[in-house]
Amino acid sequence: MTGDDRRTTLSAGFVFTRAAAGTAGVLAVLLAAYGLYLVRGIVVLVLIGLFVAVSLDPAVRWLTARGLRRSWAITILVVTGLILLAAFVWSLVPPITRQGGALIADLPHYLQRLSDQSRPVRELTDRYHLTARLTELVSALPGKLTGGAFGYLQRFLGALASTVTVVVLSVYFMADLTRLRRGLVRVTPAAHRPRVAHTVDVITDKVGAYMIGNLIISLIAGVATLVCLELLRIPYAAPLAVTVAVTDLIPMIGATLGAAICVIVVICTSGIWPQAVIVVLFFVAYQQLENYFIAPRVLRDSVNLSAVTVFLVALTGGTILGLVGAVMAIPLAATAKVLLSEAWPAAEPASPGALES
Known about the structure:
Number of domains: 1
Oligomer: single chain
Structural class: mainly alpha
Number of strands: 0
């Protein structure tokens, strides 16, 4: 065999070996991606549990800074959260269920009374037969609920199982968060460890400050709405206040959505003047107070993003993971902004002397 033939054989073998290795690598990536797709539900729960643990870490560190062991601090937070949840369910769920059912049942009556009092509303309801359609819908609702009871029970048990899983994962992550942070730093090259440690600290601080602050703001919104509606003697004040508190967690549009729901219900149950007008004025004033006084002091510098960026980031996160993704995306985007600004600081303007030289 000549030298040219030997080189040709070696080249063919080399190409075949590289092609086989490349094909095996592509197959391994595809199999890994398919495996992640199969367990995507579990992966999402793990990510949510990790996010909750990071969000509560500032509270854990606040307790440990006052002499408590980390295990005791986590226990106090978990027990306090369970007590608050039980108190919330015990105090609000029965009236919410009772008043919510009454609201649905009385909607046709309220709409009919409103149409009798207002000519434009009467023309609108007569044109589209809203009262008859709403009455038919309310009448058919118990049958639909009874017929789909098994499906509702199945979805409820699934949601309950997911919630319990997230709580358990959050507790485990909170207990091992310090160890996880150290392990993440150790697996990186020594030259990059300070940078990785700083990145982990920034993520923890941003996520924790934003989530705790967002919960506080939502609680303030719900309590303020409850006080306003109770003073005006608006029916169904408790479910409406809870609706405002929950929707206030949604970035950008949540507060407006909760206010719109309240105003519609007030118009149907109590009329436009004066209750609905006062409620509209309350929400306009409260939104200004929340945007320019409460939120800046509660969130401080946890989220330093423009309104357009917040909207796009929340929209992207909501498309991927729904409401949870919209909430998670904002502090992560704020973290990315901090890290990128530190990696590529803005160029300092040159001095006049430098320009002349």
